[in-house]
Amino acid sequence: MNSTTLKLAERLIPATYLQQAAEAQSVYEKQIRILVDQRKCPEDGWDDSAIEMIINELSQMDSNNFPHNCGVGEREARIYSGLVLRRHYRLGHGIGRSGDIAEVQPKAAGSSLLNKLTNSMVLDVFRSVGVQKTAACLVVPMATGMSMVLCLLTLRQQRPKSKYVLWPRIDQKSCFKSIITAGFEPIIVENCLEGDELRTDVPEVERLITSHGPDTIAAIMTTTSCFAPRGIDKLEEVAKLCLQYGVPHVINNAYGVQSSKCMHHIQQAARVGRVDAFVQSTDKNFMVPVGGSVIAGFDAKFIEQIGKTYPGRASSSPVVDLFMTLLSMGKKGYKKLLEERKDLKKHLAELMEQVAREYGLRVLTCKNNPISIAMSLPVEESAALTELGSMLFLRGVSGTRVIATTDVKTIAGHKFEGWGSHSKNYPVAYLTAAASIGMTTKDVELFAQRLNKCLGKFLSKKEKLSQNIMSVNEGDSVEGNANLDKSCVDSTERENKVEKE
Ligand SMILES: *Cc1c(COP(=O)(O)O)cnc(C)c1O
Q: pTM to 2 decimals?
């Protein structure tokens, strides 16, 4: 209500009451004024009612919600279901215009403003969690892999001669497939083993740049966040090569925003060398549903170029989710979550070390992986190790991976030996667990308990089995193994029931 209306209301309600209400209202209005004026993520989070108020105000600014609207176009944000309408706060126009995802949509002033505010709030967050030099951010309603495609397609326009993308190996399918989908041929750079850790082979990267010729390479795609025992790529050294040879550098920072280490290395790489864009998932870093990612960079022009490569309009849902979440967390809330995550990573490592010691195993030393932890497993057949994975899964443990290091996988005609382990010949089998944003102490402790139980079962069964096999003739060992697999699952299911009861 504006002051004129409030004055009129004094005929109905005592002025002092109205004054108090007006003061509360002015606090909210001040929050909005500051947000639109400074375009930064607020330090302190807003409460849900203030967030709903601003979303409603913004949606009232879109033409589909104008009382006098008369739509005669083919896209008028008409929404049939009331449920869908409510789910989207009456925002129906999406973001962007036909040729640019960042452009203002004349029919949707509110959605357009919301989009701009979100991009600048994310920029503010990135700058304050370690990448101070970030020049622009673009929230896109596609997950990370597709956003990498968009970056690569933008580079293709600038480098017509390019055919290849140089890619230090990381065994994650979507980033590899983004190269294929963008129509480039991947050049896979195997990692070097340094202690327990897999790291970028920088001399090999340089050799490949010069042997293929810098102009034939669309980009080097490095990775920060990944499963241990792979470490963050040597971003600074690769960035220097990119600068020296004039080759673009795109960083896959899928879940790296939550780690000050990943963010710091991106900042340093941009300081000492070349970084064209870094891409991160919204769900993995900001606790929103899957659906969006942020493309960020150090040259606002290039990020603008990427926005123009996106054909057509786009869903505003991932933007709205992020907008609401950042307002709700505030920078303080986000930083607190990051601190808690860091502490939990330590806790998780300690508990995994305890479990490992109990079974004569060990946690692999991976100083350059700030999120994921790997623990060695006894040498085993791949199938038997898979059973350990299912045992954990049946006990409600999700997200852990058991890696036998002997799997072979062919993706788009490229054969990966040791698939899952980022290497052709990693010396030990292992399992991984990650400490990521939003994890709780309870998650960590339950995981350690269940891991302990499963390993105990798994190893004692293995012992019994090998005694069985020795007492039977050799030819039966394969069958014996199959029995092991079955008995593991059966007993796990039984125990599961018992635990639930
Ligand atoms: C999650 C992730 C991706 C992208 O996956 P999307 O499903 O496309 O978001 C790429 N690389 C790594 C290392 C990831 O963790």
A: 0.91
